[in-house]
Design a protein that fits this description.
This is 6-oxocyclohex-1-ene-1-carbonyl-CoA hydratase. By secondary structure, the chain is an alpha/beta fold. The chain has 16 helices and 13 strands. Bound molecules: ligand LSA72ZH7.
């Protein structure tokens, strides 16, 4: 009986068609701000598998918390297509450089300085954004979001488009929309109700309060969470989050909620003293990649396709309407909110006086350049 290796050597074709859209390195599209790295796949025992890889798609914009620029969105679309058609790729690991941020969404500087007041331009940008989310949801390989740090705004949206998320426990999650002049309709309003229920989705999508990785695991928006802080050489749970009890004295769930007052401050001080180490995160990601490797590939792909359907159906139902509304929104509230974030500072604050705006609108005040200027945090001084 011929061995499998002999059969492969005898029958594998000499030429394979390249199904990539364009033959360009992903990095060349965005000055290296998105990296595509094929890393050797490993078995569960840690041994390297010859000829098979996991494709790491890495956001590389640390100074801006791995927010994505227009060029990064283009590169990401192609990166997921590249992984999808690469016969040697087992799974995609979608992550960011560093240990502060996976991604904080659209680039607010580009939004404020180029797209604000230009709905026709933002409509074109949103075609690319929509295609990025669709490329993740349509990837023919399982996609793991390696949450190396905060996952906020559009970062939360593209992260939820992945099939699995594994987070280091100092990462926060949440939306930014209504606080920065947008609505979380780039996927969050489609995915959140499915993943954490309508009530919790409403809280996150409207109030934009961040929540911890431990709460994210409890709510079911991530598959696993691992410690990342080392104090005295020993891993400890995020010291700013309640992790040692589940209920408070009234029977309410407190596990995963942020500590408050002096306890929270003490936790922040401990984080400053400690060292951040993502080795347990990488171990957990490699373990999942190894489990995915140990399956029939077409059955895996079919299972992904079926299990993605709830997200995909919600996404496809709404994405074009969302794109149109987000474009027009660049005339008023997005123009105001993203400029406030971009032009504000820690001292002046980076959000507008929402009450002042509401008071003006209550009197029928029209949206004029003058009104927008007056709402800038620096405009109040
Ligand atoms: C809450 C934050 C995420 C973190 O706050 P903090 O820890 O205080 O850090 P900062 O000092 O704010 O940020 C550090 C530096 O990073 C820059 N930064 C952070 N986020 C972005 C971003 N998204 N784009 C560009 N630059 C960013 C920040 O300016 C600091 O640099 P600096 O030089 O100024 O010191 C907080 O950072 C925050 O709220 N960030 C913005 C989040 C946001 O609004 N994202 C966009 C949401 S909208 C979106 O993503 C959408 C996607 C598609 C659909 C439509 C849509 O709206």
């Amino acid at each position: 009986m011929a061995r499998t290796d002999e059969i492969i050597a005898k029958t594998a074709p000499g030429h394979l068609i390249d199904h990539n859209l364009i033959d360009r390195e992903v990095e060349s599209l965005c000055d290296g701000m998105v990296r595509y790295e094929k890393r050797p796949a490993k078995r569960r025992d840690g041994s390297v598998v010859e000829g098979l890889y996991n494709a790491w798609i890495i956001f590389n914009n640390p100074k801006q918390y791995n927010s994505y620029t227009t060029d990064m969105v283009k590169a990401t679309i192609l990166a997921f297509r590249r992984a999808s058609v690469d016969r040697e790729v087992n799974a995609v690991v979608f992550t960011g450089v560093g240990d502060k941020a996976f991604c904080t969404g659209g680039n607010t500087k580009e939004y404020a300085e180029y797209y604000a007041g230009n709905p026709q331009e933002y409509r074109q940008y949103m075609r690319l954004f929509n295609d990025m989310v669709s490329a993740i949801l349509g990837c023919d390989r399982p996609v793991i979001c390696r949450v190396n740090g905060m996952r906020i705004g559009g970062g939360q949206e593209i992260g939820m488009a992945a099939d699995f998320s594994i987070a280091q426990d100092l990462a926060n999650f949440g939306q930014a929309g209504p606080k920065h002049g947008s609505a979380a309709i780039g996927g969050a309003t489609d995915f959140l109700p499915l993943m954490i229920g309508c009530e919790q989705a409403m809280v996150s999508g409207t109030l934009c309060e961040p929540f911890s990785a431990h709460k994210a695991a409890r709510l079911g928006i991530i598959a696993d969470v691992v410690p990342a802080l080392k104090v005295g050489g020993k891993f400890v749970a995020n010291p700013t989050v309640i992790t040692d009890r589940f209920l408070d004295e009234y029977g309410r769930i407190v596990q995963g909620e942020f500590k408050t007052g002096a306890d929270f401050k003490a936790g922040q001080a401990q984080i400053k003293e400690g060292e951040i180490d993502l080795s347990l995160l990488d171990e957990k990601v490699e373990e999942l990649c190894a489990k995915l490797l140990d399956t029939f590939p077409e059955c895996m792909t079919k299972s992904l396709e079926e299990l993605r359907k709830p997200k995909l159906q919600a996404w496809n139902l709404n994405k074009e309407n969302s794109r149109a509304w987000l474009a027009l929104n660049m005339m008023n509230e997005a123009r105001t909110g993203f400029r406030a974030f971009n032009e504000g500072t820690k001292e002046t604050g980076r959000e507008i006086d929402f009450v002042k705006l509401r008071q003006g609108l209550a009197k029928g005040t029209p949206w004029t350049e003058e009104l927008i200027e007056s709402l800038m945090p620096t405009g109040q001084k």
